Amino acid sequence: MQVAEILKKMIDYSDGNRHDINHLLKVWGYAKTIGELEGLDEKTQRILEVAAILHDIACPICREKYGNTNGKYQEQEGIPLAQDFLKDTGLPVDEIDRIVYLVGHHHTLTDIEGQDYQILVEADYIVNADESSYSIGNIRNTCEKIFKTGSGIEILKSVFEM
User: Fold this and answer.
1) Which of 2, 29, 35, 56 has the fewest C-beta atoms under 10 angstroms from its C-beta?
2) pTM passes above 0.90
3) One digit per residue, pLDDT tens: the chain, 162 residues?
4) Domains of the chain, first to last
């Protein structure tokens, strides 16, 4: 299955929740852009893009089960959902394992290993900062402490006019 087919499958999975669909599209768009600007190899780029598409797969179940979409709940619930979602995609097992890992850690901002993980965190933060109207102080602090890619930093600064 190609990335576009996985994206379509996730849009269908979102069951008409336009907020969730728009959020995943924005995160995917930023992740795709940052990954390409950073020169990721084809495999890492694919892993990044699929992880960006699936990163919030657990939000519906978290809303139902916990009444919120707390990041730790998303990570916990997202692992089995992502595994199940990806099982018939034809992606290699090592790629599925990495995507599931990223889905299960996308709110963990410590011990970030790999460009795919770093870029996913950066792309999700840019979108969350906009959607939740984070303060410029929060954005500056996160830029200094969490952002590592040159492209992610440039995009963050451009979006928030810093």
Assistant:
1) 2
2) yes
3) 799 999 999 999 998 999 999 999 999 999 999 999 999 999 999 999 999 999 999 988 888 889 878 788 888 889 999 999 999 999 999 999 999 999 999 988 889 999 999 999 999 999 999 999 999 999 999 999 999 999 999 999 999 998
4) 3-159 (1.10.3210.10)
